[in-house]
Each structure stands twice: as C-alpha cells, then as structure tokens.
Amino acid sequence: MRQQHLKYALANVPRYTSYPTAPHFQPVADDRSYRAQLAALTADRDLSIYLHIPFCNQMCWYCGCHTTIPNDYSRVQRYGRALEAEIALVAGAIGAAGPVTHLHFGGGTPTYLRAGDMARLMQAVSEHLTFAPDCERAIEIDPRTLSSALAATLAGLGINRASLGVQDFDAGVQAKINRSQPFARVAQAVDDLRAAGITALSFDLLYGLPGQNIESVTATAHAAADLWPQRLSVFGYAHVPWFKKHQQMIREAELPDAEARLAQADAIAQALRQRGYVEIGFDHFAHPDDPLAQAQNAGGLNRNFQGYTTDQASVMLGFGASSIGNLPAGYVQNAPHIGAYEQAVFAGGLPVQRAIALSAEDRLRRHAIDKIMCHMALDLEAVCTAHGRRADALDDALEAIDEMAADGLVTRAGHQITVTRDGRRFLRNIASAFDAYLDGRPQRHSQAV
Question: For the chain, which domains are there?
C-alpha cells in the first residue's frame, strides 16, 4: 500500500486554504471593487481579522513566509503606521458589520514589534471595529524573542492564544536550517505565557527538513507533547528556492525523499496519538477536549488561511503587505511589497493588488472541497442540490475519485464519498479532484506530503 501512496505524496497540490487558490487571483487596476464589497457588508456578518507583520530578527532558511530582516526599527514603525491607516480606511469603507470574533497576528515574527507599537495596533482595531466579548486574539511567536515581560504585555492587550514556532528540537537539524532553539528556551516561553494567563497554546512542527529521520522527528514530537500544548500543526517543508532565495542555503542532497517524508509524517502522527492527541484534518492535532477537536466532532470545523480553525466568521479582513481577505463576493490580496503597500495606504487608497470574484461554479466546488477537507465525507448530490445544480454537476471528478478508491484513500457509494483512515494524509489530493483550475505545474504548489 505504501508504494501506491507514494504517487499521491509526490503530487503537487494546493493546501486549499481558499478556493480558487491564490495563484489564480488576478491583478486589479484600483480599489473600487474592494470598496464596493466592503460597502455591501451587513451587520449580520461577523469579522475575522488577520494582521501581517513581515519582520524577523534573522532569516530561517526553511521559511516560506513573506518576511524580511529590517536594518532599522524605523522601518517597522513606518509599517505600523501604515497598518493603522489601512485599518481606518477599511473600517471607513464598511457599510455595516458584526463584531470581530477572531483576530490573528501573523508573520514573520509579530513579536518583533515593540510593546508600544503592538498596543497602538490593538487600539486602532478597537477604535474602528467592535470586539466580541469572547473574541479569540491569537499571535504567532518565535520563542527565542519572548520574555516574561513581553508575555505579560501580550496578556494585558487581550491576547489569549499563542502559536509557537518549534519546527524541530534536534540541534543538528536546527543548525542546517539556521534556527538554534534549545528545548529549554521553548519550555521557558511556555512557562512565561502560562504564568501571564495565556494558556491556549499551539506548536508548529516541520518534517522533511535536512538531517531529519524517523527517530529525530519522533523525539521532537514527544518533547513537544511533554510541554502539553493544546494544539499542534505538523507541516511538510516546502523546498521552493526559485521562489524563496534564502532556501538555497539548504542543501538539496540532505533533504529526505518522498518515501522518507511520508514515513516522518506518519511517525509524528503516531507519536502524538500515543500522547493523547486526536488528528484534525490532515495536518493538525489537538487535545480531545480542545474546541478544535470538539468542532470536528460536531461538524463545525472550518478552514482558512491559518489552517483548521473554529472561526465561524463569514468575512475575513486581511491587513498588511501580502495579506488576503475573504469576502462574500470573493478574495482580495494586498500588495506583497512593503514599499508599494505603504505608498498605496499613505495615498489614501486600499492596497489591494490582486483579487478574484467567485462564480457560481467556484462556490459549488469550494463547498465540495470544504466538505472533504473539514469533514472527510461528501454527499455530492446534496452539495449540488444546495447550489441549485443537477445531481451530476460534479461527476467530472468521479474518475479521479474512483482511482483513489482503488488505492484505498476513499470509498464511494454512488454520490457518497468517505475518506478512509489511510486517505486522511492525502486530503489535499482528494480535494484536488474537484479543482477546475488545477494545472499540475510542479512549481505552483508544494508536495502533498
């Protein structure tokens, strides 16, 4: 069975945090359409907010994020003022909206911001938008940058969830990816956050890095579990040196092949299951009593640009360079270049650079993909009927689905598709059967595993 699965592990497929996926967004000439979409929002639309902080102390060679190393903190402060201005511009363009139910600081390293600048951003949001009383306010943290004082500051600003970049605890692997981060440093960060009252913690782990093997990733998984975060995200390293030039520092000869990557992913999953975690989708793990696990059990699991989530907001507003927003009519993406982003905002314009409007066909296929990715089951006829389409509107996917059924990834009874245990790892592949845009170019998407 493993040989049958390797062809899926090697396939280049999207992560489906959106559909259509970001490579298919198109350039826009101005911000008029975005403004019209914001003006059309109504008070029954809860908001989710993402703020992108594209700065780090040093470049980790595995990184695929939109980030940079500033040579002067004044650059960071200027960017912060641009973020405040964008928040005001977007809020001023909104017709009406419900409260902010989720807020997420991503990066880069959001904690690169000094406490005062972080406070100014939170104040800008609260001045222009309304927070729900139970709003989740999350932040991504490099444990090497956290102090007890900073943890207390974050808690004082209302941060109640923290995601720590762990990646791997093996010192040899860390040396090969330019990220020296001893276990004791991460443990101290965990202690500082919990002492400050931020107890909802998530870890990010990576497999497929140079120098990793089954034994090392298993040891890392157990060490991470020793710190008992409520959630873990387990990602495969995407080696794209043609897109992220700093990845050229990683020696391709030291990267594990597809079979080794698959074995590492399985080993991490097995270790985390042994430690009491349950699998969420294809790459997340959670305590059984965590809201993410409860949402999966209740059929309320969702997926957005941060991965699997309990976020039920129907609108996501993205702030900052490269960030993506999700509105009822489609997706919008800000200019990725910091200078272009700032120039647009300071000139009074929304910094949107690319977008895509959802067609009826897009909505139908997005619904099917969401069902597979979040619920591991799909009633094709019910989805088609919900969109006013014929029951066979998605039958073009069945040839690929039947091939996957023959390989043990799914079962199919008529229009009922169910993902098997073996198929969980390959949810991206299964979802791709419904992707009308997929062109298979290897440099467009990362490997499935």
Answer: 21-357 (3.80.30.20), 360-432 (1.10.10.920)
